[in-house]
Amino acid sequence: MRALGLDVGTKTIGVALSDELGWTAQGLVTLKRSEDDVDADLSSVSKLVQEHNVEVVVIGLPKNMNGTIGPSGEMCQSFADRLKQVNPEIDVKLWDERLTTVAAEKMLISADVSRKKRKKVIDKMAAVLILQGYLDYK
Predict the structure, then answer these.
(1) What are its GO cellular component terms (predicted)?
(2) Is the CB of residue 118 less than 8 Å from the CB of residue 109?
(3) Is 134 helix (H, G, I), strand (E, B) or coil?
(4) In the predicted model, what is the mean pLDDT of the chain?
(5) pLDDT single digits (tens) 38-57
């Protein structure tokens, strides 16, 4: 079972991919979001789904610390719904991603990655943490 993890933001989408056994997550790519063209973003993700024979897509759901869903969470829910419509053959899951970006930032700082390089990989690293959390849960 191969799974794809997504950290959907307003400017980029961090993408992680599991191994074929569904045990580990590795960073794959950071997609630049199309300004006002969600269909182009969905197409890019769908291409990765087909290319890597993905069965499950895990999308990070940003919740507030009190568990409520804000505007970013609503955007991710909408993205997940649209992805299901475009790819009805795959399972799309939402996964609580609270503090994953903070954790990714701390990991990169402790690895002494420069601020400039961190900015380029932070979303991909957050996607890895989202996907690995889901894989560990399963």
Answers:
(1) cytosol
(2) yes
(3) helix
(4) 87
(5) 999 999 999 999 999 999 99
Task: Give the C-alpha separation, 15 to 138, whole Å.
Answer: 19
The answer to whether 60 and 6 have CB atoms below 8 angstroms apart is: yes
pTM of the shown model: 0.86
Cα–Cα distance for residue pair 13/59, rounded to 1 Å: 10
Domains in the chain: ranges and CATH = 3-137 (3.30.420.140)
| Model confidence at 137: pLDDT above 90 | no
List the end-to-end C-alpha distance of the chain, in Å, as a whole number. Answer: 11
Tokens representing 131 are 């996907």
